[in-house]
Amino acid sequence: MKKLRPSGGYRDTASFQTATLIYDATVWFCEKFLDSRSRTVDQMVQAARSGRQNIAEGSRASATSSQTELRLLNVARASLEELLLDYEDFLRHRRLAAWAPDDPAASAVRAVPRTFRKDRADPSDQTDQSDLTDLSDAERAALYSRWLDHADPAIRANALICLIHQANFLLDRQIAALEKAFVEGGGYSEQLATARLAHRRKKDPSDPPDQSDPIPTCPQCGALMALRTAKSGKNAGSQFWGCTKYPDCKGTAKV
After folding, report:
1. CA-CA distances (angstroms) from residue 16 to 31, 144, 150, 164, 217?
2. Average confidence (pLDDT) over 219-228
3. Residue 240 in contact with residue 254, Cβ under 8 Å?
4. Cα angle value 226/232/233 (rounded, 5°)
């Protein structure tokens, strides 16, 4: 039977791959520039690891829980924010210069994906969509080696700050897309209940509705309705029936 909701696939996402690069580079940074007995080392490595691992765990949890997936992605986002502060503290405490957003070095780090696509693109192939997500972890790290393997800790720290900002941007977009999908399509339990009734009626259209599972039809278009939860407004947190053809049909009914 086909899964109701897809899950996994996180290894091919830009957010996970960027978080992996940040995790590996943080381990290398701490080994070279910080005292291994320092508590800061453990905190930085764990924050970097949490950013990566929670993306993976959230992706696997998406099969049965949108809310768990969102919570874990937010944990990943918070962990990377903590790591960002650690690198900023490293530069400030040692009176090392932090790159401004428009610094040429910062722009060069941010431009790596764009430069890679330009260099790899085949002018004769209009469908070429070459991307960093097609690379192995080692190949991806090699593209940033001029900064992440540099002998100057300030260059490494600043480059990692740029990468963390990129990862956070990707996670913010991912979280926003998941929130939108949850509002429009409901969570797993809501989709499962709708699919169950649709399957039962498909097998036997004359089968009367099961009163133990009374899912109504839309008062506007007649389609099946899905149980949803209001996310904002005066009824935030309360459930209601919403048309499964939303946003084409905005029919609702009280539970």
Report:
1. 23, 16, 24, 12, 40
2. 80
3. yes
4. 110
Euclidean distance between CA atoms 243 and 245, whole angstroms: 5
Closest C-alpha to 94, from 43, 45, 34:
34
At 99-126, the pLDDT tens digits run: 999 999 999 999 998 888 877 655 454 4
Dihedral angle sign, alpha carbons of residues 205, 206, 210, 216: positive
- Quick: pLDDT tens for 154-177: 999 999 999 999 999 999 999 998
**Structure-token pair, residue 92:** 């400030």
Give dist(CA 221, CA 101) in Å, integer.
52
pTM metric for this prediction: 0.71
Secondary structure (DSSP) of 103-124: -HHHHHHHTHHHHHHHHH--TT
HSE at residue 145, side-chain half, CA atoms within 13 A, is 7
Q: Encoding tokens for residue 71?
A: 């919570």
Q: Which residues contact 228 (CB under 8 A, 6 or more apart)?
A: 183, 186, 190, 239, 240, 241, 242
Give the tens place of pLDDT for each residue, 54-72: 999 998 887 667 788 899 9
Query: Is the backbone peptide bond immediately before 123 cis, with ω within 30 degrees of 0?
Result: no
CA 202 to chain CA mean position, Å = 36
Distance CA 202, CA 254 (A): 25
Q: What gap in Å lies between CA 115 and CA 224, rounded to an integer?
A: 48
